[in-house]
Amino acid sequence: MQNCIKLFFILLFLASCSQEEEPSAPAQNQGIVGLWEYESIRVEDSLETPYANDKMEPGQYKGSLGGERAEINRRRIRYYADGTYQLLWLDRGAYELGTEGEPNWQPSFGFYLGNSSGDSLYHNRNLYYQCSYSIRLENNQLIRESKRYMSTNSSTYNSAPYHGLWRRGNEVKFVEVFRRIE
């Protein structure tokens, strides 16, 4: 009986040792480390746009925000080697995505973790505002896909490609394309 108990604990120990652990963020995400600038956004495979509103949804260049603030290349994200990230606005410092408590909210800084195969990325994993992405690194681009709940109606924009594409609260496939600048 004593030998059976010892064998059980040995097998249990070996089983726990053989489980694959996720590598730490700095070791597995070296390709993502750096400064990335938004190039375009796309909702549900519609046309890509280089403009966004204040909720980071497709917007108009001379919309209610006025002037250049709708140009998304003014918004950037830096992924650090220590597993943290920072959202940056070219001339305003940090910004946040959405409003705290809303489903799309992402604070202006936090931590990230990718999976071992390099095709998924999490911002602030295991927190109530966790956000998961599918990612691809192609040449000098980072392409992030996620599910997003829209904050506005697409009919708000009078441009034909977006009219009627989504309504406020719809869950959509959201694609963000960045280019490496550092």
Give a quick set of tags describing it.
182 residues, Lipocalin, eight-stranded antiparallel β-barrel, 2 helices, 9 strands, 12% helix, globular
* Broad shape: globular
Distance N to C terminus: 63 Å
- Highest CATH level, the class: Mainly Beta
| Count, helices | 2
Q: Write the element-wise H/E pattern from the N-terminal end onward.
A: HHEEEEEEEEE
Biggest sheet: strands, sense, closure? 8 strands, antiparallel, barrel
Q: What is the CATH topology assignment?
A: Lipocalin
Low-confidence stretches: 4-28
Count of domains: 1
SS strand fraction? 25-35%
With strands numbered from the N-terminus, the spatial order across the biggest sheet is: 1-2-3-5-6-7-8-9
- For the record, the CATH architecture stands as Beta Barrel
Task: Please explain how this structure is put together.
The chain has 182 residues and is mainly β. The protein has a single domain (30-180), classed as Lipocalin (Beta Barrel). The protein contains 2 helices and 9 strands. The protein has an 8-stranded antiparallel barrel. A hairpin with a 7-residue loop joins strand 6 (120-123) and strand 7 (131-138). The chain is globular. Mean pLDDT is 77; it is low at 4-28.
